[in-house]
Amino acid sequence: MQFDECARLILWDIDHTLLDGGGVSRDAYRSAFTRVTGRPMSRMADMTGKTDLLIASETLRLHDIDPDPGTLTTFITAVAEELEARADLLAVRGHVLPGVPEALGTLSRVPGVRQSVLTGNMRILAELKLSVFGLGEHLDLDAGAYGDDAEERVALLPSAWKRAQLHYRRDFSATETVIVGDTLMDIATAKAGDARVVAVATGSVSADELHRGGADIVLPDLADTQAVLDAVLGANAGEASGSLTKLSE
């Protein structure tokens, strides 16, 4: 099977799709807020499906602090430093979600498939989380999009396409692109670019809500590797499975 016969750019969300961070990111935000403002954080913006830029900006506004560029940059830099300092705690309190290593590894062996991330995490935090849990091996992080690329998540897909074009020296069409995530914002991001979206009900959004939100396919989790292959590869799943069988012989 040639590259163009089953070309897929699979863009994975990270939190609650690939892994659960055990609330350590919230702790990092609290400490960073106190460092930057000199007072405790009394409220935090809802993090679900949002970019770090938007979470930080909304959190500052909740405390009547103007998220001007200088303050916002100082805040998110402090967040990154605080999470880096908690890497060992992240490894203890967090965990990889069921089936993730198998799904990433299997898809990495399918000719034509390329995998990266489209995440609300700023890049330094995405790399940290994936490194802590050993999930970076099959992901081309130079071809992804991150929560410090834009404040609104729906603006991230064009960034991923641009980086993928530079990294792989080819364009990926919307029909060749699949976003995998656990929130309504993952769905909205895919729909904004006419890409396909596979939703997983491993976060705070129910399977019914994900269906109603417009996901092309909803999986309960990533534990069934064949179901993941079928979902992200669609009509090419059978051919891909045949190729994998030949590779294993």
Question: What tags apply to this protein structure?
Answer:
alpha/beta; 7 strands; two-stranded antiparallel sheet; HAD_sf; PGP-like_dom2; phosphoglycolate phosphatase activity; single chain; 249 residues; Rossmann fold; disordered C terminus; 11 helices; 5-stranded parallel beta sheet
A few lines on this structure:
One of its GO terms (molecular function) is phosphoglycolate phosphatase activity. The protein is an alpha/beta fold.
Structural account:
It holds the Pfam family HAD. This is Haloacid dehalogenase. The protein folds into two domains: 3-21 and 95-248, Rossmann fold; 24-91. It has eleven helices and seven strands. The protein has helices spanning 24-37, 52-62, 69-85, 87-93, 100-108, 123-132, 156-168, 184-192, 207-212, 225-233, 237-248, and strands at residues 8-12, 19-20, 95-96, 113-117, 177-181, 196-200, 217-219. The strands form two sheets. The chain has a five-stranded parallel β-sheet with strand order 4-1-5-6-7, sandwiched between helices. Strands 2-3 form a two-stranded antiparallel sheet. Helix 1 (24-37) packs across helix 3 (69-85), helix 5 crosses helix 10 and helix 10 packs across helix 11 (237-248). The chain is globular and about 55 Å long. It starts with 7 loop residues before the first strand and ends with a helix.
